[in-house]
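Quick bug: 2-dehydro-3-deoxyphosphooctonate aldolase output formatted oddly.
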Amino acid sequence: MAQNPFLIIAGPCVLEDLDTASYIAETLKNLTAKFGFDYIFKASFDKANRTSLYSYRGPGLEKGLEMLSFIKEKHKVKITTDVHETWQIAPVAEIVDVLQIPAFLCRQTDLLVNAGKTEKIVNVKKGQFLSPWDTKYIVEKVRSGSPKEVWLTERGTSFGYRNLVVDFRGLPVMKEYADRVIFDATHSVQLPGGGEGKSGGERHFVPYLIRAAVAVGVDGIFMEVHPEPDKALCDGPNSLPLSELEKIFSEIKALLSALQNV
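Here's what came back:
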């Protein structure tokens, strides 16, 4: 069986305005095509787990799905977004190619089972509080609904207060259970709640973690990106600037080529 192309899931943390989201999608589509990667555009219509009540959450379900639908049609890209409640699953599944389950909700049985019933690909972010071995039960819940595939995404593990670390031993463990394992490089450098009412981040570490994950053998990289991360309305401190992606993609390509010869 032919191996799937290396996957890039990327976009802004949350939908801000259509022009920005569309520009990001177009840029990433062209860059990933240049390096031979498969591409899925990601953005949230609602960030229901923001640290502060006053943080920007997104345009909401109706307007957000309109924006995602426009981007999908205009740029001919695959789409993913996250769902937080079971009633969101049906309308979102009509638009997206991959349903994403947020890390904080990765054990919500009804959410997982009903996502699987859509027969879409379901990508579950591994909770910061969970061991890689526990993801076996997540996958079982999703598979009970006959999904197309189940993916697991590593995004770091809580290590003390306001800090995350990545245990790369967990990636091959999760591969025993899931159809694909993705590495979320930008959330892994997040400092949860570390910005006094919002999350901080250390984006300068992202390229190093990407190299390590590719070397371990992940099936794809998830990253949040923005033309000007310091002006992003959500997760700016751990998002990558679009201007850095060509270099990062080049490094991924070189590592993949090197691994083929090992």
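Actually, after a second look the formatting is fine. The CA atoms of residues 118 and 147 lie 7 Å apart. Closing.
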